Every structure is written in C-alpha cells, then in structure tokens.
Amino acid sequence: MHNEVGSVGNGGSLVQAQYIGTVTQQMPGHERVVPHETPRALRRLVGRDEQLKSCLDDQRAPLVVFDGLSGVGRRALARYVAERVKDRYPGGAYYTDYATHTVDGEPVTAAALRSLLRRDGVRDEVMPAEPGLASLWRSRSSGPAAVLLLENVTESEQFLQLMPGGRDWLVLVAGRVESPIEVREVGGETIPVPPLDDRQAAQLFRELSGLDADLDDPMLTEILGYCGGLPLALRNAATLVVVGRCPSLPELAVRLRRSRAELMRSDRGPNKGGPVFESTYQEATKPAQRAYRMLGAYPAIDFSAPVFDLLIGLDEATSRDILAELVLLKAVQEEHGRYSMHPLVHDHAASLTGFGDEETHEALARVVRGFRDAAYYADAAVIGVQRYRVAEAPDIPVPFTGDRRANGLAWFEENRRALHELLPVAKQIGLVDEIWQIAESLAAYYFDRKRHADSLSSLRYGVKAAEEAGNRAAEARLRSLASRPLTDLEQFEQAGRFVRRSIELADQDGHLVLRASVREFAGRYHDLTDQPEQARQNYRESIELNEAAGEKRGEALSRMFLGQSLGDAEGLRELEVAHRAFGELGDERLAARALLITGQLRVRSGLPGGVDALTAAAEAFQTSGATFYEAQAREALHAALVEQNPAEARGHLDRAIQLYRELGSPRAEKLSSENDGGLDGAES
Questions:
Q1: 106 phi, psi to nearest 5 deg
Q2: How many CB atoms are closer than 10 A to CB 230?
Q3: CATH superfamily name and code, 477-574
Q4: 455-471 pLDDT, tens per residue?
Q5: In the list 86, 268, 354, 408, which could disulfide-bond 93, CB 3.0-4.6 Å?
Q6: CA 522, 525, 529 angle in degrees (round to 5)?
Q7: Residues 618 and 600: beta-carbon distance below 8 Å
Q8: How far apart are the first and last CA of the chain?
Q9: Domain ranges in the chain?
Q10: Cβ within 8 Å of residue 432, ≥6 positions away
C-alpha cells in the first residue's frame, strides 16, 4: 500500500490512501440519560414469599425467568423484583414488552433490540441491519450494570438474544420457557410461579374486593374454585364486586355459574378485553390447536397420555409430540405422568370447540369406548372373571397384569371421576350401550369402596341407557345393582321398586344366571328392610336357579347370604358350604367374607371358633387390600375381645378407625367417640 502526503490550499495536508477498510461515521447523539423504565410494581404480593426469597437472596444469577400459566402473576412478580433491586444497578433499568413489538412484519426480537438501542442513544441513521443488532446491543450494554425487564416472552430466543454484554447485569423475564436447559446454559435460573393455594387466594380476593368472607364460607369456596388460584381471575372477580355489578358473594357466585369467561379477560395491552389464553392458542401449530379444541370437548380437566391418544386419534409418536408442544405452551401441565388443564384454560378450549361437529363426536366416542373396555377388565381384575356380567368381554389385550386386583382398583381410583363425567357426554352423543356397560363395571368397584352416592349416580345413568337401548337383561341387572346403594342410603321405597322390576325383566329375558342374580339382590334388600322370610325365599330360589345353570359362584353367594339371614345352626352349615365352594373356586376374597360372617355369627351365639374365624378373615382382607371388609372384621374383633383382652381389642379398634377414615366413612368418628361397639352382621 502506498500513501502520498502533499500540501493543499490554506496550509492543510492531504493524505491519499490507495486502500482503506470500512469507515463508519457516527452522527452526534444525545447525551445518554440513565434509564428508569420499569413500570411501577404492586405495593405487595400475596403468596409469593418463596419465589421472592429465591431471586432476591441470590443476586449472582444474570438471568431469572418467571415461568407459569398466563394470568398466574409472572409479570407482577418480575416487576416487584425489579422495583426492589433497581437501586443496586448504576446503569439503570430497561423495560421491554414483547406484546408491543409485533408491527410491520419485523421479527419481534429484532424490533425489541432496535427499541433498546434507540433508547440507549443509537440513531436510526446508523442502526445496523438485523444480523448486527444483537452484537451492537452487547457492546452498548457492556458498561455499568443495569436491570433489564422483559415481559410477554413466548420463546427462549426472545431473551437469549437480548442478554447484555456486561457481566453484572440482571435480566428478569416474565413469560414462557421452552426449555430450562437454555436458561441454565447462560447461568440463569427458572422460577416456577404456581397458582395460589386456597388460603392465599382467599386473602388476595378479600383484599381486592373488600368483602370480609371467611374461608369456610361455601360461597367463597365456590368462587375461589372458579378462579383456580390465578391472580388475574381473582382480580377480575373482585372488580365485579367493587364496581357494584355483583356486590355480594351470592350474586357473584350466581354470575360465575352462568359464565366464567370474564375471569380471564385481559385487562391491558393490545388484547385488552380478550381471553388471555387466546395468544397461547394462536402460537400453537395447527395439530396442537386441534388437540387443544378436542381437550375442550373432553369433560375432565385431567387425563393420561393414552386417553389423549384416543382423543386425537393419531399414532402414539405423533400424539406424544403434540402433547409435548401443549406442555411447552403451558396449555397443559404434567405431573407424575398425568396431564391436566387449568379449569379456566379448559373453559377457553371448550369455547373454541364445535361440540356438534362430526370430528368431535368421533373423538369423544373413541374415548368413551376406550374407557368402557378398560373398565370391564378393571372390574374383572377387582372382582374376578367368574362374576356374572351382562356385558361381553371387549376384544382387546387384557390390560391388567401382576397384582391384578390392586392394579384394577388403582385404575378405578385414577379414572372414576373421568368415567362419571363421560356418562352425560356419552348420553349426548347417543352411546347408550356404552353407558350401561360402564355403569355395570363401576358397580363392583363402588361396592368394594362403599361409595354409595357415586354408585347410585352411575347406575341411574345405566338403567336409563339400558331402557333406551331396549336391553332387558342389562336393565334388570343394573336395577338390581342399584337396589344396594338405595338401601344403604335408606331410600327403601325406590329400592323396593327397583328390586321388583328387576325380577320382572329378568324373568322376561329368561337367562337363568340373571334370574338367580336379581333374586340374590332381592334377598339382601328384604333382609335389610326386616323381611327375613321373603329374603330367605329369594335366596333359596336363587340357589335353585344357579344350580340349574351350573353357576357355582352364584350358588355359593346365595348360600352365604342365606346363612347370614338364618343366623342359626342351619345358617352355619350354609356358610360352611359357601366357604368351601369359594375355596374350590379360588376366590379368596369371598371365602374371607364367608369367614367374617361365620365369625360374627359364632361370637353372637356364644359358640367357639368365632375369634379365630374373624382373625383369619381380617388377615385375608388386609392381604388382598379389601379395606372396608377388613375394617368390619377389626371392628367385630374389638367387640369380641374387649372384655377378655382389652389391649388386643384396642389395637383392632384403632385399625378399624384408621381404615374407615381412609374410606371417608362417618363410622370412624362414631367408633372413635364411642370407643367401643361392633358390627352386628356383615354388611355386604
């Protein structure tokens, strides 16, 4: 390279350069003013002590991301932290809201970077093209430490591209995180922001609304349930009170029963007045949007991955990818392998669902039939394959292996609410056969758990569906099953009508085992309504019909209940026959029930062997997990031993109380207060 230097007019010099690299000429800018841009924070936050402690006590992290569901208060928490710490940062406080950077088709991250650089003194005339924006921002932000608050972030790149060059800066992000790994890679931390618990939600609602409502107030409990612990929903509910549209709890509860849509209306920004979850829905891919709408049609807010597969009707790999996307979008939460939608997110999804369209009907039908098939085999796992059923076994692989009874019970516990919520859906789309089939399968589980009200609810659906389907056998079966919870709930008149109608229908159908089964249930109804002669006639007719059909299990059941009804030497002989038959059939649970009744009868009659029979029954029930029957056996042992061995009796009583409490039975408190007593006769 060769330079020449020469004189020019007025005494100056001229340098002629054959080659010079790029020359950047910076126009004079305004003097930099230390920014203090973060919006004013709330004076105090309710229920966020743990999150505040986590991010205020440790200032080493350069990045803190507040992650959670829309409306949960991520922005309020981020603003509160920014307000608390900004005086520690001499470079000031910057603020960017991504909701305002969606104009002119420019990528939102580039628009945010341009906005930050302009506020830092860079003029548009020298603003670099998009690829150079991030590097210029890092250079400009390498000076005095400052705070950068970012709101409405929807993906990781929106904050990773804005990370400053200065090592002592603090970046606070309110939004959604695709992966905590990316946050950790830059030395940051993710702070989950969950919904408020009931106590915190009640405190916030009282402070905002001015209503002095006690947490035990059922109206307040109902309203808090609608809000689901989301501060935005609580604030919107409180606003209805403050502005006088619903000045009292009862009026507010009535309004929210009609519609909860206004609870999640955005109160600021370009989407003001619109549902806050709409933006999340719009960000999803088309398959995820479809799945979101299908979840809105599904009646339960929690579900398993296999249920999701049925609902969207795609192969497992594709289905799980879509489910993962919904989790990343925070439309769905995952915990211990189960998935759920916040109730208000579910409301929004439901508002987008065309429930009457064919695609939705097909999706719901797949789920109903999938539950029906699994419920059949769960019932068979709990009670045994020998139990009489009207429904036929589904043509699918048996889903329960290993400890089949325990796994079947666990499946019912996990899915019983979904099963109940699906019954009216199945009715609405005309799946009457599936309804009575599900109701039949649920009955055995409810009898085992003694959930009388739930049992009666599902059986009533089943009876109506069987009647509508014109299936006399199913209707007879379900009416006889329904007589049990009706009797236990002391609705004797209706139980009697169900019993009589079940016998009429079964005799019209003619199936011997069905005719025997409904008479067994009739006998139990008559026993419990103090009609022993009629009960014994029913049992004997059932025994004859079962013998004619070669149905040994049904015959043994009727003999067991006949023995209990007789309560004498003849009864003990019937119980002995029943116990032996159950043993030959390999039905340990029913064999233990026969022992329980035998032990109670012997203790009551002053005959030897009663305590031994009760002890054997209790141990068998404990081994098999038959909680209710074990509680009965322990209670009977307490009554039998309380005088001769008070210490041992007390141990059985404590165990019975514990088991009744696990079942939610009022019997627990009754026994606890009485501190004595026992069952006179086994309930079944």
A1: -80, 140
A2: 25
A3: Tetratricopeptide repeat domain (1.25.40.10)
A4: 899 999 999 999 999 99
A5: 86
A6: 140
A7: no
A8: 105
A9: 49-192, 198-264, 278-353, 356-470, 477-574, 587-684
A10: 426, 465, 466, 468, 469
